[in-house]
Amino acid sequence: QVYAVFSEELQCWCRALVESIRHQADGCQLRCFLVDYAKYCSIASENIRVLVGAFAKIPYRAKKCCLHCTKPLTLHIDYCENTAKIGPAKRWDTAAIQHFRKLLE
Q1: Does this model's pTM top 0.70?
Q2: CB contact at 8 A, 30 and 14
Q3: What's the CATH number where 34 sits?
Q4: Parent domain of 85
């Protein structure tokens, strides 16, 4: 279900999908995916509203996707043998993400 959330970073109300809920002493924090900005953010539980009517039916401007058959790689450095090899990684590193975003722009 899509909700309306107030983003402190963007200073506006946005449509969002709730990914997870984290309970804290002062309330709940919601991890949300902003469907019109393709961004993840944390939202306080008091900044969420239910969308009603036609607003809930507007198509998303952003979609979650992944690269087909593309696995993250990283540079493995062996200081003992003084070698460096490219090999599989568990997740994409920051430099690769920034490079990919520049290619998209």
Answers
A1: no
A2: no
A3: 2.30.30
A4: 73-104
